[in-house]
């Protein structure tokens, strides 16, 4: 299938301009070499093994000075193709919206509201459900976020130029100027190194995280809320209130210290102030524009009284907001400047609370409406009110995240110092009794002169930092590897002892298969404690982790464990009369819970969403979903409509027989997965030789280490690089291993018809298999076999052969259940996207294999290392599943 004409033209144009850049910057010989490789790769993709062998031989024989620009050329093309594809998604959406006769786009506000009303939801109930939605998107940085911020900015400008190129009224000189501007950006991107000179710090990552707000979300949020309001007005007769936003934002960037020693209390302090500085800067720009707009002399008596009868009352009122924003910017800059006398000052900032912006804006609105200027109230002012509702004065609330064992270590150090015994050695009952006693005590527990170790000191400093920041700077305190109620109470006690004025909500994170199985028991025990019941105020947030559970038991078993855990947690909270918010720690790749947003939310257990959702957006997925305003608007729309639909029309409970079958599928898949990954004697050796896992650990692509602790096997490796290493080789093992065994066993039992009924009638099962099918379509056994042939000792190749046979068998089993002949038969757009990219990804893989071979024989050759990182970027761009 060919690309749509407009997309094909964009891709061809960008490819031609890249070719011009290659000839100009690298010379005709390199350009000719790239073209030869491209032609061979396309023939090899058409099924020619001879051309594949020729392609491999050509790339193996290249000196690194040729291999690097060849890999860069294909990597740049893939990034440019991604930009064109993202732009085409926006263009398609605009075409929908221009055509008044077209049916509304699936998942849009208009389509969803109409569908819900046709399903029997009353307009009043729909309106109330929308204004009570609570959706928080939490941005994170991760070890495989390979793309530099500098290049992201250039790619954003290329996307903007493609948008301009769509204008029908471009004059010939304007067209030529636009082409020259594209040439310039592509040349600048080519001359920009993909390789960071040093590992980014968490502060670098925090600055990059803020860029998506300035470049896209600041404009996308009010536009999305305008569309939401218009659809509400159409279907319910009532518009979205100006001070209401179903969407808010959080961040882990600079707050996630779990296993990252670079994230310190100082880092979190700086990251939170940077977010507040960025917010103040953006608001200041809008307030200046609004003051220019609201130049009228006439105002309501209420406004006149507020400004003492000033001649231009709106400008006078907003002048005060402007002045405090300017003062806030200066104060934050002073607090971040070690040479300033106000460095780390704890004095209140000139502007802190959301109300200090929201209330003057609301007064402006009331005055405009009272004086017959309601039209002016529905423009820039309304957008700014909605920004205040969505972003507050911080843009994001920063979560803190720490491993439960670090709190245990801290309390154990305190109890030993005080002669109370060893907290770490106590039973759960003893720990709870101690914690509750201290939580209810008025005397301090921690002496001022307590001699803490550096690790304990950092835990205490983090909580002290939380005590001195404005309360709305921080969100939740997420407790990784929660094993018991005492892990939650420990965080509550530390906050009490270090005098956090408005304690952060303590959020248990269940992320292993074992923890998920016990999660409801832990929540029940916690909610049974009278002190905690009073503390939680009728609300409980629980986080479920998709990455470590999948690494532990495989994707299929983890998906079912997460589904049933959410059911049981929701039941425990309902029984206790507690309002539950589930926080989904989803990654970008399917191996870590990723996948299409709408599909993921719609396949959650019935009753588990209920109008409230928190979810992580990780690594490059932030750019993929929010990097352009048009993409961001659609992503925000899908989050809102999917959450609303899951709340008002949840899927039916699955047939009990299907649950029994799913229990057996999950158990068989988990056993098969663990038999390979954890029980095959030399699997770790195969993994480390067949993939670039070892080399990835040494790259300067993120602040967080790839491992939680030095040494060990798969169990010590973080889930993100575990998935990323297999993605680089195109085997994609974590996303499918065990699935084929489970489905084949069920077929052998005569259950194929039952599996097909589950696929047709159960959204959870269908979504799970569809995501696995997508990964199988992206996998490539031939490429994975080439990594093995070049890099793996001969006595380990039988293991790789078995894995590739399992890959093929899994694809066949999934197709039999889905009743399709070929992978992605029902998704031609995605099938086309993969097919177009493959001939450009393949050469990068083959170059990477050769670079890995040479790296492993060299003594840290820097040229090889830099060339290798170029291939990492390129494969990530081609696979679109980096994290």
Description:
The protein has 883 residues and is α/β, with parallel strands linked by helices. Helix content is 64%, strand content 6%. It contains 37 helices and eight strands. An eight-stranded parallel beta barrel has the order 1-2-3-4-5-6-7-8, surrounded by eight helices. Helix 19 links the parallel strand 4 and strand 5. The longest helix is centred in the first third of the chain and has 35 residues, at 64-98. The radius of gyration is 28 Å and the shape is globular. The two termini are 29 Å apart.
Summarize this structure briefly.
With 883 residues, this protein is α/β, with parallel strands linked by helices. The chain has an 8-stranded parallel beta barrel, surrounded by 8 helices.
């Amino acid at each position: 299938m060919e690309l749509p004409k407009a997309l094909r033209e964009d891709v061809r144009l960008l490819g031609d301009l890249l070719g011009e850049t290659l000839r100009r910057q690298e010379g005709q010989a390199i350009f000719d070499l790239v073209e030869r490789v491209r032609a061979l790769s396309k023939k090899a993709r058409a099924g020619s093994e001879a051309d594949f062998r020729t392609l491999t031989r050509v790339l193996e024989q290249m000196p690194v000075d040729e291999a690097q620009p060849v890999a860069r050329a294909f990597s740049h093309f893939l990034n440019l193709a991604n930009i064109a594809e993202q732009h085409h998604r926006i263009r398609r959406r605009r075409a929908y919206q221009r055509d008044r006769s077209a049916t509304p786009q699936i998942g849009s506000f208009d389509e969803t509201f109409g569908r819900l009303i046709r399903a029997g939801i009353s307009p009043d109930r729909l309106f109330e459900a929308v204004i009570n939605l609570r959706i928080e998107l939490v941005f994170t940085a991760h070890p495989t976020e390979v793309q530099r911020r500098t290049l992201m900015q250039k790619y954003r400008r290329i996307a903007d130029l493609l948008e301009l190129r769509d204008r029908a009224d471009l004059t010939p000189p304007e067209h030529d100027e636009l082409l020259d501007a594209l040439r310039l950006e592509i040349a600048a991107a080519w001359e920009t190194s993909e390789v960071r000179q040093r590992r980014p710090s968490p502060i670098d990552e925090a600055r990059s995280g803020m860029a998506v707000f300035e470049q896209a979300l600041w404009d996308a949020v009010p536009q999305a809320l305008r569309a939401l309001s218009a659809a509400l007005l159409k279907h319910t007769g009532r518009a979205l209130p100006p001070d209401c936003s179903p969407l808010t934002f959080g961040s882990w960037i600079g707050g996630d210290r779990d296993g990252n020693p670079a994230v310190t209390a100082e880092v979190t302090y700086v990251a939170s102030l940077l977010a507040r500085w960025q917010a103040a800067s953006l608001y200041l720009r809008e307030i200046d524009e609004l003051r220019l707009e609201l130049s009228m002399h006439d105002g309501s008596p209420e406004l006149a009284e507020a400004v003492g009868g000033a001649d231009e009352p709106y400008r006078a009122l907003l002048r005060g907001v402007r002045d405090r924003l300017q003062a806030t910017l200066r104060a934050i800059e002073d607090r971040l400047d070690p040479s300033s006398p106000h460095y780390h000052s704890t004095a209140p900032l000139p502007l802190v609370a959301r109300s200090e912006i929201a209330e003057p804006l609301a007064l402006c609105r009331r005055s405009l409406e009272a004086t017959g200027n309601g039209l002016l109230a529905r423009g820039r002012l309304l957008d700014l009110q909605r920004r205040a509702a969505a972003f507050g004065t911080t843009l994001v609330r920063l979560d803190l995240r720490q491993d439960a064992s670090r709190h245990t270590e801290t309390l154990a150090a305190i109890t030993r110092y005080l002669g109370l015994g060893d907290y770490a050695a106590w039973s759960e009952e003893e720990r709870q009794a101690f914690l509750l006693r201290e939580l209810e005590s008025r005397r301090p527990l921690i002496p001022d002169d307590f001699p803490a170790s550096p690790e304990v000191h950092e835990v205490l400093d983090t909580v002290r930092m939380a005590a001195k920041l404005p309360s709305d700077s921080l969100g939740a305190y997420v407790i990784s590897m929660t094993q018991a109620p005492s892990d939650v109470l420990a965080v509550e006690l530390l906050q009490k002892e270090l005098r956090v004025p408005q304690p952060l909500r303590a959020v248990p994170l269940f992320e292993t298969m074992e923890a998920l199985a016990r999660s409801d028991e832990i929540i029940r025990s916690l909610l049974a404690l009278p002190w905690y019941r009073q503390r939680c105020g009728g609300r409980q947030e629980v986080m479920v982790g998709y990455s470590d559970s999948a690494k532990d038991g495989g994707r299929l078993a983890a998906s079912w464990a997460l589904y049933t855990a959410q059911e049981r947690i929701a039941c425990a909270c309902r029984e206790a009369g507690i309002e539950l918010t589930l926080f989904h720690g989803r990654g970008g790749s399917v191996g870590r819970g990723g996948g299409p947003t709408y599909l993921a939310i719609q396949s959650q257990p019935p009753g588990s969403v209920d109008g409230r959702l928190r979810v992580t957006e990780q690594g490059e997925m932030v750019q993929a979903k929010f990097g352009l305003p048009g993409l961001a608007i659609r992503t925000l729309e899908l989050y809102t409509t999917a959450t609303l639909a899951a709340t008002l029309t949840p899927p039916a409970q699955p047939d009990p027989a299907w649950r029994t079958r799913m229990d057996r599928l999950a158990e068989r898949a988990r056993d098969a997965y663990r038999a390979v990954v954890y029980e095959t004697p030399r699997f770790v050796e195969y993994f480390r030789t067949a993939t670039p896992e070892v080399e990835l650990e040494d790259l300067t692509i993120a602040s967080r280490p790839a491992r939680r602790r030095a040494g060990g096997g798969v169990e010590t490796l973080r889930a993100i690089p575990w998935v990323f290493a297999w993605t680089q080789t195109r085997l994609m093992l974590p996303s499918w291993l065990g699935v084929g065994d489970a489905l084949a066993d069920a077929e052998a039992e005569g259950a194929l018809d039952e599996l097909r009924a589950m696929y047709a009638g159960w959204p959870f099962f269908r979504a799970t298999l569809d995501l696995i099918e997508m990964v199988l379509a992206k996998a490539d056994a031939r490429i994975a076999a080439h990594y093995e042939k070049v890099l793996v000792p001969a006595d380990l190749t039988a293991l790789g052969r078995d894995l590739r046979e399992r890959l093929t068998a899994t694809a066949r089993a999934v197709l039999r259940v889905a009743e399709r002949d070929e992978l992605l038969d029902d998704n031609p757009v995605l099938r086309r996207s993969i097919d177009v990219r493959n001939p450009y990804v393949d050469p990068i893989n083959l170059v990477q294999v050769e670079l890995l071979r040479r790296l492993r024989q060299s003594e840290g050759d820097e040229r090889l290392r830099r060339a290798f990182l170029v291939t990492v970027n390129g494969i990530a761009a081609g696979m679109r599943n980096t994290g």
